Structure formats: C-alpha cells, structure tokens
Amino acid sequence: MHLIAVSINHRTADVALREKVAFKDDAIRSANVDLYETKSILENVILSTCNRTEVYAVTDQIHTGRYYIQRFLARSFGLDVEDIKDMTEVKVGDEAVKHLLQVTSGLDSVVLGETQILGQIRNAFFLAQAEDTTGTIFNHLFKQAITFAKKAHNETDIADNAVSVSYAAVELSKKVFGKINTKRALIIGAGDMSELSLLNLIGSGVTDITIVNRTLSKAQDLAMKHQVKFESMESLPKLLADVDIVISSTSSENYIVTNEMLQSISNERKHDSLVMIDIAVPRDIEPGIDTIQDVFSYDVDDLKGLVDANLRERQRAAEQIIQNIPNEIEAHNEWVNMLGVVPVIRALREKAMSIQEDTMDSIDRKLPGLSERERKIISKHTKSIINQMLKDPIKQAKELSSDKKSNEKLELFQDIFDIEAEHAYETKKQKSNMNTGQILSFE
Questions:
Q1: Residues in the chain with pLDDT < 50?
Q2: Separation between Cα atoms, residue 25 and residue 30, nearest integer Å
Q3: pLDDT 10s digits, 139-184
Q4: With CB atoms 3.0 to 4.6 Å apart as the test, which of 12, 304, 308, 374 could cross-link to 370 if both were Cys?
C-alpha cells in the first residue's frame, strides 16, 4: 500500500493551464467515484481550487498508481497523458504526507498562510467520504492534517498579517479606527483591485459601502453583484463629506481626489477622521492631502512597506509550523505501523479469553456445587493469570510495529501462538491481489 499525491499548482502550471484542469463543483462527486473505480486505486480524495488541482490516493503499487491517476486527469480534461505529466508534481509516502500538511496549513499557497485552503481541504475530504472513496488511511490522515492546520493557525501569527495590497488597505483603516464595522466606506473604481477591496471591507463587517466609477454602468454592475450602493463620479465631493474610509483604484492619468476638493468640503464633514488609501498607479489622490486636519492618506508605497513587513512575519510563523511537520509525519507512520499490530493483539486476546472461558466451563462441570461468589473469584483470578501472561507478548508485538521486518516477524508471532489475525488494512474494494507483503509498506 502506498500513499501518492499528484499536484497541479501555481508552481507547475500557469493560470491558462490551471483553468483547463479545474473540476467544476458539480463534477467532483462523480470524478471521485470514477477514480475510485480505476485499477490500483484503494482510496482517493480530489481537491480542485482556482490555484490547484490535486489527487490524493492510496494505491497498491506506486508506478501503476501514478500512471492511472495521471491517465484519469488526462481523460477528465481531454488532454494527453504527457501533457498532464509535464504539469504535475508527484509526491510519494512521507513526502505526500508532508505535502498535504503544508497545503492544508497554507504553506503552499500563493498567499502564504491563507486560511481558505483549510476549508477547501475539509470540504474535499467530506465530499470524498460521502462518496465512500476514503477508508481507514484517509479517514485518519485528513483529520490529522485538518487538526494540525487549525492548531498552526491558532498558535502562530501566520494568518494575522495582511500580505495583499487590497487586504492591507482595509487592515490599515483598522489601525486608525479600531473596529470598522460601523464606518462608511467609499470605493473609487470598479476593477479587480476595487472588487477585492470591497470583499475585504464586507469581510470586516462594513455594510455601508458606496462605489463610484467614471463608467457608471461598471459601478452599478459591481454594486449589484455585492449588494452595495453606487453613485456617479459627479457625486464624489458630496460622498467625501460623509464617509470615513476611501479606497481608490482607477487607471486615471489625473488625480481623482484633489486638495482643492477636500478643502471645499472640510467644513461639511460630519465625522472627525478620514482615511484615504490610494492603491492606484499612477496615484488617484493628490499628494499632500494628509496635511489637512484629521485626514490620513496612504499610497501603494506605504502599503508595500506594511505588506513586506507582514510577509516577513508570516515567513517566521511558517518556519515554526514547518518544524512541527516531521513530528506529524512520524505520528502518522506510528499509527499506520500499529494497524498491523492491533489485529494480532486482538487475535491473541481472543484466543486467551476463549481458553479462559473453556476452563471455566470445565470447572463448572467438575465442581457443580460452586456458589456464584466462588465462581466469580475463580473467573477473576484466571483472567488475572491470562493478563499477566499476555503482558510481555503484547509489549513485544507493539515493539514490532517499528521494525523494518515487522510483517515477517508478526507472521512468526502468529505462528508461535497459533493465531490468525485479520488483514491490517482491507479496502472496501476488496482487492484480491493484495497480499501480506503489500500491506503497510509505504515507500
């Protein structure tokens, strides 16, 4: 049995290629089932986001497993297998476990430490589990990875510092106001950066948001999409008199907000402070505006300094998380190794208890006059003898879990005690070609 992770991500393929190999939400269920029915695949989970398409699988062989996964991806998207091979990273065994832990923790994301991927991994696992394409290994491993990622985010600052300009813009306004959910915001522009800023404001609880744009229809489209207000660019002076936060991102070659405009409405402002954040290049907001009382103005250079400092903080936090990954891999391997021992110990206990029950039956026949109290005392002491006799063999069996020749030695252990344990790992597919040598041998 082998663990394989096949990944197409932002390092291996550009966005044009990633678009071609992204599963639609309504297709992932059937894709999981199709892959599960493929030769060599024992368990599988498919993850598909805007930045990665990944297949995690437990397979009976490494090379055939890798081939059938890549062939599955090629057939799913109408591509040649060679094309898929060119854009995939393949991780096996411990490296596959490490990859899953890094992805789930946000260490492998475009934005270091982002938390959205944790929810996406969790949803991918639950969906695969609902389709019965996971089993003993993945039901344990994915829960371990999700728990590890949650702990990493709770115990470090990896997700606490803004590392995108639009997000940093909103975080900067929080540094001035503290809580911003009751503040009024104005977004100038209707492009991608404006939409990201809008989403970050909404995510921070701001509900009173207005969009203005030179092309009114674009402002309207964006406002309708996210259920906020919109106005024409001619309304800008009036709006500036009434808002607390301004984020501007247009492609204008001239200043959108000028000193003169702010001076003209300075007496009309109902609020004390005005935070103006200019994320446009060329700049939308005229320099020197922050000399006006209670106006705080920031441009992309100010934000870049914040983003760079925050990224360094995230990298330090990432290093802390990375140091804990080897322990997680070791814990996973110990759990996997114990899978082979548990059935042997169970079989040994069952045989011992069967002997004890037979002995009690014999005592009942030969000493029929025993009282219930006397029978309980004899039963208790015979069980105690068995437990003491089993203590050292069970300890030895557990120690065999980490032995390189554990399979051979566990077989010998069973021969010595004349027991027959169930298979340590048996999939729902009941692979007929799985033999003892294939069980639990991660490579």
A1: 431-443
A2: 10
A3: 999 999 999 999 999 999 888 776 778 888 888 899 889 999 999 9
A4: 374
- Tell if the pTM clears 0.90, that is, is over it: no
Distance CA 140, CA 331 (A): 11
Name the active-site residue from 11, 25, 50, 391: 50
Contact between residue 395 and residue 24 where contact means Cβ atoms under 8 Å apart:
no
Tokens of 278: 């200019």
Strands 274-278 and 295-298 turn out to be parallel
Spatial contact of 246 and 257, defined as CB atoms under 8 Å apart: yes
What is the structure's pLDDT at 45? Answer: 98
- For the question of residue 291 being annotated catalytic, the response is no
